[in-house]
Amino acid sequence: MTSDLISQLTSGALTSVALTERCLALIAQRDGAIGAFLHVDREDALKQAAEVDARRGRGEALGPLAGIPIAIKDVLCQTGQPTTCASRMLKSFVPPYDAHAVTKLKQAGAVLLGRANMDEFAMGSSCENSAYKVTRNPWNLDRTPGGSSGGSAAAVAGGMTPLSLGTDTGGSIRQPASFCGVVGMKPTYGRVSRYGLVAYASSLDQIGPFAPDVFGAAALLEAIEGHDPRDSTSVNRPAQGYTKTLEQPLAGLRVGVVREHFVEGLDADVAGATRQAIDVYKSLGATVVDISLPHSKYCIAAYYLIASCEASSNLARYDGVHYGHRAANFDGMIDMYAASRGEGFGEEVKRRIMLGTFALSSGYYEAYYLKALKVRRLIRQDFDKAFEQVDLIVSPVSPTPAFPLGSLTTDPLAMYLMDIYTISANLAGLPGISIPCGFSSDGLPIGLQLQAPPFEEERLLRAARMYEKATSWTRLAPTPAA
């Protein structure tokens, strides 16, 4: 568990070099089968670890994550390390600067272990859209780890790193956390600076933690949160000491259960595990309240319009001139643009760019994009009204456990529906967390989602910890891959 690792490092019972070497050995042993990492800089990781050990040996003050190895999703800029966004478009990009979250991790003393695989430009729900490799679920190598932060989740679940960072635009932290049986958290929009995050959909993107337990998620969020004037959406609120209050149970907790969530299409094992988790909260003294989010049925449609429109705008910069891959063979400037983008982007990215460009075009903006923004406001109002009655909302994370690799790649709509329980938190800007709550009949992890009002991460983490203490799901790990 994360707190044990930190205690061992602090006491000197374990050195950062030893811990980092252990992680590197496990990556060498397991990642050939799992495919969680795109790039691992062994020498740099050991150098960072040795520096932490040396500073500890001199008695210097160290950060809260001093000596802990952490994997970084390949969409966050890191000085001197490749940042490809799992795309051929950025295959040669090495940033000259750090993302704000990466800077905060360095200040906290973390050892940056490597770059985690993902769906290209964070567009996908299965980690099959990477231009470089498919990531597999450590619990069953024939299943997806989820996406788009599938590499970050699989790296933690596979025991190859204690912690990792991901991003969540429509569920890209919570869904892979659920599929891989780890804890994953999407903070409130504005809680963590996106400076240095390669943008997909700017009004939805958030950076958040993966960990094997709730303490690890709380410690990692503590390390990366805080105001950053370089991100105009970063909110200036005092940092919260999540790890200090984590063991304090919430008295008088009111838990909302959304009646629209338990409908046709929800897997029986997922429904059963979610119901049992609700019973656990009842046994801990919580009051369960039946609530409604009447506009939730429009979430998928609104999200894929808004996200695709923003993606088409953000990715316009990759033209082979200003940024990104340039084709070797072309006939004139227009052909150079077309050939560079055609070669650089994968099929799913092209699909979303085309959808967004169409929806933003003259004559369709009001009919599609503007209407989607109005629906987004109604979805947020549903949550505001619900949180007048309850403190938290409990739901499934995904309608099914991890699905077989390749089973949905030819059916984009079915793939999009995997996000049906997570997207609303992004549209409303809310924090959400996925914690393990059971297994399917064929041995796949199932996640429980908790959602809270904006900037109530402390409440969310304390409630998650209440459930974790009452159960044993976060103490289980998959059989190591060969």
TrEMBL record:
GO terms for cellular component: glutamyl-tRNA(Gln) amidotransferase complex. Gene3D superfamilies: Amidase signature (AS) domain. Residues 19-461 form the Amidase domain. It holds the Pfam family Amidase. GO terms for molecular function: ATP binding; glutaminyl-tRNA synthase (glutamine-hydrolyzing) activity; transferase activity. Its EC number is 6.3.5.7. The active site is at residues 73, 148, 172. InterPro entries: Amidase (IPR000120), Amidase_CS (IPR020556), Amidase_dom (IPR023631), AS_sf (IPR036928), GatA (IPR004412). Keywords: ATP-binding, Ligase, Nucleotide-binding, Protein biosynthesis, Transferase. It catalyses: L-glutamyl-tRNA(Gln) + L-glutamine + ATP + H2O = L-glutaminyl-tRNA(Gln) + L-glutamate + ADP + phosphate + H(+). The keyword Hydrolase does not apply. The keyword Ligase applies. One of its GO terms (biological process) is translation. Heterotrimer of A, B and C subunits. Belongs to the amidase family. GatA subfamily. Allows the formation of correctly charged Gln-tRNA(Gln) through the transamidation of misacylated Glu-tRNA(Gln) in organisms which lack glutaminyl-tRNA synthetase. The reaction takes place in the presence of glutamine and ATP through an activated gamma-phospho-Glu-tRNA(Gln). This is Glutamyl-tRNA(Gln) amidotransferase subunit A.
